[in-house]
């Protein structure tokens, strides 16, 4: 398995994986399949190829066929007063590859990247409260709850809560 930042050659694979994720796990994302399926490919390209080398989407690729099988987004806050904060978003691993450590590997790659920037003091993320596997993974890396948002998502007539987690770096310089 290879884990790396996605690049311009990965836009089509990312588009397909993102739409699969939104269909298969609608309660795990703030966006919806219906909303993103209508977006132009340029919107997906902008996510994969941001203007800087700090932000982007980590991809996990299957060694057998170089297929994109997992993703995790990372971004650093752009506002000056919040530039010490990183965000993780849109973790997804295709169902047939779960329980093989891909989520852990993606998370570890993103955390290593974040620490390597040398300027971040914390990383924040949100996870659907009933997603115990994802929550356990984040907490195993030191993330701590700092907030709970009731009824954060509304999917197919049901409300879902979201837990907000933070990982504080002691020192990143």
TrEMBL record:
SUPFAM superfamilies, A to Z: Acyl-CoA N-acyltransferases (Nat)
GO molecular function, one term: acyltransferase activity, transferring groups other than amino-acyl groups
InterPro entries: Acyl_CoA_acyltransferase, GNAT_dom, YpeA/RimI_acetyltransf
Keywords annotated in UniProt: Acyltransferase, Transferase
Any single Pfam family the record assigns to this protein: Acetyltransf_1
Keyword Transferase: yes
Acyltransferase keyword on record: yes
Domain N-acetyltransferase: 1-172
PANTHER family: ACETYLTRANSFERASE, N-ACETYLTRANSFERASE DOMAIN-CONTAINING PROTEIN
Protein name in UniProt: Acetyltransferase
Organism the protein comes from: Chamaesiphon minutus (strain ATCC 27169 / PCC 6605)
Phylogenetic placement of the source organism: Bacteria, Bacillati, Cyanobacteriota, Cyanophyceae, Gomontiellales
């Amino acid at each position: 398995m290879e884990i790396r930042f996605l690049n311009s050659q990965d836009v089509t694979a990312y588009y397909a994986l993102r739409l699969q994720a939104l269909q298969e796990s609608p309660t795990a994302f703030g966006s919806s399949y219906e909303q993103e399926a209508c977006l132009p490919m340029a919107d997906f390209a902008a996510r994969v190829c941001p203007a800087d080398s700090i932000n982007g989407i980590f991809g996990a690729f299957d060694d057998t066929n170089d297929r994109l099988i997992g993703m995790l987004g990372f971004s650093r806050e752009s506002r000056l007063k919040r530039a010490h904060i990183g965000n993780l978003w849109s973790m997804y691993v295709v169902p047939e590859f779960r329980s093989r450590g891909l989520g852990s590997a993606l998370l570890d790659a993103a955390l290593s990247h974040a620490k390597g920037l040398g300027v971040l003091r914390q990383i924040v993320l949100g996870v659907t409260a009933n997603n115990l596997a994802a929550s356990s993974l984040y907490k195993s890396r030191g993330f701590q709850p700092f907030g709970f948002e009731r009824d954060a998502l509304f999917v197919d007539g049901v409300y879902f809560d979201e837990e907000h987690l933070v990982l504080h770096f002691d020192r990143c310089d």
